[in-house]
User: Fold this.
Amino acid sequence: MEAKTVAVYGATGHTGRFVVAELERRGLVPVAVGRDEGKLAVAGFGADVERRVAAIAEPESLDGAFSGVAAVINCAGPFLDTADAVATSALRLGIHYLDLTPEQASAQATMAHFDQAARERGVVVMPAMAFYGGLADLLVTAAATGWQSIDEARIVVALDSWQPTIGTRITGHRNTARRLIVSGGELRPIPDPPGELVLELPAPFGRQDVIELSLSEVVTITRHLQVGELHSYINQVPLRDLRDPTTPPPRIDESGRSPQIFLLEVQVSRGTEIRHGLIRGRDIYAVTAPLVCEAVERILDGSVTQSGALAPGEAFDAPAFLGALSPHELTVEIAHAMGYEPRMRGISQQAS
Ligand SMILES: NC(=O)c1ccc[n+]([C@@H]2O[C@H](COP(=O)([O-])OP(=O)(O)OC[C@H]3O[C@@H](n4cnc5c(N)ncnc54)[C@H](OP(=O)(O)O)[C@@H]3O)[C@@H](O)[C@H]2O)c1
Assistant:
C-alpha cells in the first residue's frame, strides 16, 4: 500500500475537485474516483492524476478503485446514499475512511456500523470532517480544553450569502429526518418550530436573525464530550439564498475561492466560566478541502494513535489542528473569561 495515496470519491464534484487539488498541494497522491468516466475526463485534473470509475451499486468496482490507496475521502453526497457502500469497501480493504457529511443520520450510522470493524482493522473511520460537522467539533473541543464536561455549548454559523452546489441542494432535499440537539444531557429532537434569536455577532455581520439548525456537529461532539445543552444556529440570510431556486451555484474568483464570507462562533460554559471561540474565513466548500486533507495527513503520518470510528475533536489535538490551518485557510481566536453568568450572554429571544 502506498502511504501517501488517497482516493477521492466524488472527485468530479465542486468540493471533490478542491480536495484533489489540496492533496496535490500537500504532496499527497490523489486518485480521482467517480461514477462518470466522461465527467472524470473533463474535470480539469492534471495529466498525472490517476482516474478510476466506480459506482455505489457495484462493490467490486469500488474495491478496484480503492485498491492500493491508504485512505478514501468520500465527497459524494447525499451521504445517506453513498457512505455505507464506500465505507464498507474501505473496511474490506483495510484503509481509512473519511467523509464530509452534514447529515446527522449518515454520521450516526457510519459511526455505529463501522466502529468495531475499524478497530479490528486498525484504521480510522471519520464522518463529517468538513465545514459543517468537524470544524465546530474542533472549535468546541479547543475552547473546552481541560474540561471534563460542558454545561452549555452554543454554535453559530453566519454566512454573508450561500450559492449552493447541486450536491448541497440534493442533500438538503434528502436530509429530511428530524434533527437532533442536546437538551438535559440527552439527544432530543429539535424543537418544532425551531428556536429563533437575534444575536449581535462580530463584524462584519453585526445584528443577525438566527434560527436553530443542527447538523452533523451534534453527532461528532456528543461522541466524545459530555454536554448538558448543545444548540446550533445559522443566520437567516443564507437560508433565504438556499430556498431561492434561482440562486446560482458558487463561482470561484482569481483567489481560488468564492467571495462568500463565513464566521463560526462557539460559546461553551461550565459553572460560572464561559469561553468563546471564533473562526473566520472564506468559502465553506473551499475550506472543507484543507480541513479534510489536514485530517487525512495527520491520520497517515501516525499522529492519530486510536482506531475505530472517531470524531475529529476526539482524534486530533484540536488547538494544534486549527492552528496548523491558521491564518492561511482560516483565522482562529479563543478567549477565556471567568465570572460570567452561568447562562450564555448575548442572546435575546426574538419577539415573534
Ligand atoms: N459538511 C460540509 O460542510 C460540506 C462541505 C462541502 C460539501 N459537503 C457535501 O458534500 C457533497 C458534495 O458536495 P459538492 O458541493 O461537491 O456537490 P456537487 O458539486 O454537486 O458534487 C457532487 C459529487 O457527488 C457525486 N455523487 C452524488 N451522488 C452520487 C452517487 N449516488 N454515486 C456516486 N457519486 C455521486 C457526483 O457525481 P456526478 O457528477 O456523477 O453526479 C459529484 O461528483 C454534498 O452532500 C454536500 O452537502 C458538505
Q: What stands out?
A: The CA atoms of residues 222 and 301 lie 26 Å apart. The chain has a mean pLDDT of 94. The first helix runs from residue 14 to 25. The radius of gyration is 19 Å.
